[in-house]
Design goal:
This protein is mostly helical. The protein is built from two helices and two strands; from the N terminus they run ββαα.
Length: 125
């Protein structure tokens, strides 16, 4: 059965030939479109889209974690440089202070104290 539709125009008549099969069902159409094939295809489509979305989310989260790790490493390295610089400054200040005090100390006390072993007190037990 072929349907024809006419569109009224003041000067002419235009006729459209509509196909007998429709891609979009009519509201009054009683044909059942939900069957096992469409349910399985819908589940597969949703599962595939979900899997792809989770992979994209995982990739995004991993890139954020890598950036965070790199930033923390840079901060740790800068803190380590500052700490080692402070230690070197403290060592040089101690050496400078000892260099000022060393001429005032008698030489034999320094040599004698350097050769004496340090003993810990005996523990009774």
């Amino acid at each position: 059965m072929k349907r024809n539709s006419t569109l009224a125009h003041p000067n002419r008549r235009i006729t459209f030939h509509l196909p007998s099969t429709r891609l979009v069902p009519l509201i009054n159409d009683n044909t059942m479109y939900i069957n096992s094939t469409t349910i399985i295809l819908t589940i597969l489509l949703i599962a595939t889209i979900g899997y792809i979305a989770l992979q994209l989310l995982r990739h995004f989260a991993f890139s954020i974690a890598v950036e965070n790790h790199e930033a923390n490493k840079i901060l740790d390295d800068s803190e380590e440089r500052l700490r080692s610089k402070r230690i070197m400054d403290a060592d040089s200040a101690a050496q400078a202070a000892f260099a000022k005090v060393e001429p005032l100390l008698p030489v034999h006390h320094i040599a004698a104290s350097a050769q004496q072993p340090v003993h810990s007190p005996n523990k009774k037990g």
